[in-house]
Design a protein that fits this description.
With 74 residues, the protein is mainly alpha-helical. The protein contains 3 helices and no strands. The chain has one domain.
Length: 74
């Protein structure tokens, strides 16, 4: 595996762990009076970030490892 593939794997692992943390926090933080809009928005944003990371975060990988033809050589 090259460094680009390892970075993608790292992002997927972070996404899985983050998703587990969001779900765990969601289950623990439900107030007895009901779910507020703030908590729903917080859970949705956390789930979307986790899913993006699980998919491999292609924009982050492209940013960290740009295409070789963009590198200027003297």
């Amino acid at each position: 595996m090259n460094s680009k593939e390892l970075f993608g794997l790292f992002l997927r692992i972070v996404g899985i762990v983050g998703g587990v943390v969001v779900v765990r926090h969601a289950m623990e933080s439900v107030p007895s009076s009901g779910v507020t809009v703030y908590l729903i928005i917080k859970w949705v944003i956390g789930a979307l970030v986790g899913l993006y990371l699980i998919r491999g975060a292609p924009l982050l990988v492209k940013f960290a490892y740009p295409a070789k033809h963009f590198i200027c050589e003297p």
